[in-house]
Amino acid sequence: MALLGCKLIGVADPRGVDRKKLIVWVEIDRCMTDALSAVTGVRLGRRSLKYFDYGKVAATFLNTETGRAVRIAALDSSRALAEARYASLQSKKERQITTYREASEEELFKIEAVRVDFKETDAPGRPRTRLTCARCSEGVNDGREIIGEGGEVLCRPCGADGAYYETESRL
Ligand SMILES: [Zn+2]
Fold first, then answer.
1. How many separate domains does the chain show?
2. What is the CATH number of the domain that holds 107?
């Protein structure tokens, strides 16, 4: 998936000369994400890897130089394909590896040309802005703040979104 994604957006050397052109969005926190990071060199800490918690084996690849982006989703039907095509092979792992190596891209993936909303404040490099939340006093980078009804700057947990945690006490 990683190699195909890079190829389709014209990124030939993601770990070398094309390093700064590639942004990848992953849609699951499973081993696929680490594999993708290892193959392409994108990393969450460099802001070249973005994560959405969709629970899908899928990723979008963007060439920031050309604006071309493709989304690739693994087809669930590829598992059935492995069972049908290589039923003679003993282990399931072997059936899958052989199938995935020999199947066409269309048999394994749904591939789409997409447009991604990628702003200056999503890009790698130094933070573009840093504001302080009027409620919790914590700093918020890169435009992730919300403006409250009274015009006050709020972080997402204090604003409309709510947080994934609930504070019990300050230690
Ligand atoms: Zn806050």
1. 2
2. 3.30.1330.130
